[in-house]
Amino acid sequence: MPRMTINGRPVEFDLDPDMPLLFALREAANLTGTKNGGANFDDGGSTCECGACIVLVDGAALRSCRITLAEAEGRFITTIEGLSRDRSHPVQQAMVAEQAIQCGFCTPGIVMAAAGLLSRNPAPERSEIEEAIQNDCRCGVYPRLMGAIERAARVSQRQESISAAPAPAIDTKDAAEAVPALRVVPEPEDSGT
Ligand code: FES
Ligand code: FES
After folding, report:
1. For ligand 1, what atom is nearest to the CA of residue 63?
2. What is the per-residue pLDDT across 120-178, written as a single tens digit (0 to 9) for each?
3. SS3 for 172?
4. d(C-alpha 115, C-alpha 55), whole Å
5. Does ligand 1 come within 6 angstroms of the Cβ of 50?
């Protein structure tokens, strides 16, 4: 069974080693921040180019629909859920500050691609950003996106700072109630014994 480390946790998947990592993350590990923009399990996801599924594999931004569990064996995977615990990564902060998000479907893949770029090239040229961020965005956030990633690079290099984005205006309990599979289980009543 394929073993790997995901967001700092050693895990073992009791799944077909030929399954693309994307499906294991979303369907088995419940890490649904990684999006499926068109990968099909039957064709191994090999025809999709959208980039919505990008995660970091040993620090490199890769499309998780293109990697099988067998190929991920022994590697360190970081998903959007593991990039930061409080959305404080410079790319996340800059994306919010520059309003480079519309529907948000493409955002996790873009954030991971940008985080991978900045980890190997802290001060990329505009052309290097364009080359690294080949993600599809049907909402068309590209102009703001380029500025956001350039700003994230400056923040990473401590040339400027961004005030932390506010916490989401939804209680986690309310969010769970909107998703039956995540329904909050009430605490058992104290029997007094
Ligand atoms: S889901 Fe589109 S490239 Fe992976
Ligand atoms: S923000 Fe909607 S697809 Fe990119």
Report:
1. 4
2. 999 999 999 999 999 999 999 988 999 999 999 999 999 999 987 666 666 656 655 55
3. helix
4. 10
5. yes
Q: Give 152-156's long-range contacts (Cβ < 8 A, gap of 24+).
A: 152/90, 152/91, 152/93, 152/94, 152/95, 152/114, 152/118, 153/90, 153/118, 153/122, 153/123, 153/124, 155/90, 155/93, 155/94, 156/90, 156/118, 156/122
- The larger pLDDT score, comparing residue 49 to residue 191, is at 49
Q: Which domains does the chain have, with CATH numbers?
A: 3-83 (3.10.20.30), 90-156 (1.10.150.120)
Contact in structure between 111 and 82 (CB atoms under 8 Å): no
What's this model's pTM, rounded to 2 decimal places?
Answer: 0.85
Ligand 2 geometric centre to CA of 187 (Å): 38
Q: ∠ at Cα 150 (144, 156), nearest 5°?
A: 130
Confidence class of residue 40 from pLDDT cuts 50, 70 and 90? confident
Among 19, 32, 46, 48, say which to mutate for ligand 1: greatest number of ligand atoms within 8 Å of CB: 48
Give the 3-state secondary structure of residue 138. coil
Smallest Cα–Cα separation from 148: which of 92, 191, 88, 75? Answer: 92
Q: Which helix (H) or strand (E) holds 149?
A: helix 142-156
